[in-house]
Design goal:
Low-confidence stretches: 221-226, 341-369
Largest sheet: 6 strands, antiparallel
Number of domains: 2
Mean pLDDT: 75
Strand order of the largest sheet: 2-3-1-4-6-5
Number of helices: 10
Distance between the termini: 56 Å
Number of strands: 6
CATH class of the largest domain: Alpha Beta
Structural class: alpha+beta
Length: 369
């Protein structure tokens, strides 16, 4: 589209170049759209993103193939290229929707991905305008060049930042990075504020929200510095496991030492809290290595989970009350004599008392898995 191939290879046939122009744009747009959905990490929680990643990207790819067949069958090049521009424009719009959706659900990196999508829109419009031979000013071409450079810089930076976050969490969850500052983990009033924000977002979108409290019943406070360091390593490792399970969009915080709080916003699956609870129990109860001594036994977390399911439309839900209720449920569940137990209060009316589920796992899993 930019005219660079013609400058580098003057003998390049116009027909072969038109084949590339017609097919390459939609096909690469489909791949980029699917990758954006994976990068955002909201596919499991959001129906719109699943639709855009699957059927949406598939339709873009099929449209590119259909345009190529149309051109090879004798279609007029300029007309086919105009339809290719339309398909690419729709793909850019879907990408912007995925990024915006991720930002609404709390992914801080997705805000910059929205900016990258705007740059991509300008780049796509400028390149297809040049490919179609439209008469545009020099300022517009300069704007297109700046948008293209900004897009690639932003995308590469955001991909690198997301990979670094995931790698850090993997190392921290496995105990390889125990000395990480806890400043990024909201506590106390800051945590309640973030939970309140998650409840507000869910109410605004008309979706339910799940608030969970996870207590580690065998994590005790000690006066010795070495014991405090071990507790810090355990807390950070468990926090990393929680963050891996719930993703970057949702709230993960520490109410107090040994009690985590999660707020999973805009959940669409009514049984999502049960699936999350089972997965969290399984992952959190894996052994944590707290000593470099090969003869030392790993720490086996004994966890209990209390879950408050806030229904859609509960605009006046009190975050502090919900967090306290979740903690109370977790403490009650920690005394259950069974490996897991659920008690469900079914009440879907927002004006009625909040329904909740209590789940616990009090019997430590064997060390051999």
């Amino acid at each position: 589209m930019s005219g660079l191939p013609q400058l580098l290879w003057p003998a390049l046939a116009d027909g072969a170049l038109m084949v590339v122009k017609v097919a390459l744009g939609p096909l690469t747009a489909a791949v980029a759209l699917a990758y954006l959905g994976q990068w955002s990490g909201v596919r499991a929680d959001d129906r719109l993103v699943r639709a855009l990643m699957g059927p949406g990207a598939g339709c873009v790819a099929l449209s590119g193939a259909a345009l190529l067949v149309w051109y090879l069958a004798g279609g007029e090049g300029r007309q086919v290229l105009a339809w290719s521009a339309l398909v690419n424009g729709l793909a850019v719009l879907m990408g912007a929707l995925v990024a915006t959706r991720s930002a609404i659900l709390g992914d801080r990196l997705a805000r910059w991905m929205v900016v990258a999508c705007l740059c991509l829109a300008q780049m796509t419009a400028g390149l297809y305008g040049k490919g179609l031979g439209l008469d545009m000013s020099l300022r517009y071409w300069l704007l297109t060049a700046v948008a293209a450079a900004s897009y690639f810089i932003l995308v590469m930076t955001l991909i690198n930042m997301r990979y670094r976050e995931l790698a850090r969490l993997r190392r921290q969850a496995s105990g390889e990075m125990p000395r990480i500052d806890q400043a990024g983990l909201p506590r106390g009033a800051a945590l309640v504020g973030k939970v309140d924000d998650a409840l507000w977002r869910s109410a605004r979108m008309g979706r339910p929200c799940v608030v969970s409290a996870i207590v580690v019943t065998n994590l005790y406070a000690h006066g010795e510095a070495a014991a405090q360091d071990a507790e810090t390593e355990i807390v950070l490792t468990l926090a990393a496991r929680l963050r891996q399970d719930v993703g970057f969009r949702n709230v993960v915080g520490l109410l107090h030492q040994g009690c985590f709080v999660l707020a999973v916003s805009a959940v669409q699956d009514p049984h999502h809290h049960r699936v999350v609870g089972r997965r969290l129990i399984k992952n959190l109860r894996m052994a944590v290595t707290v000593s470099q001594d090969p003869l030392a036994l790993p720490f086996q977390p004994d966890v209990a989970i209390g879950v408050v399911h806030v229904p859609a439309g509960a605009a006046d839900a009190d975050a502090l009350r919900i967090v306290n209720l979740a903690e109370q449920l977790a403490l009650e569940a920690s005394h259950l004599p069974v490996r897991s137990r659920q008690a469900v209060w079914q009440n879907q009316a927002p004006s009625q008392p909040l329904p909740f589920v209590a789940a616990a796992a009090t019997a430590p899993a064997p060390l051999d898995g």
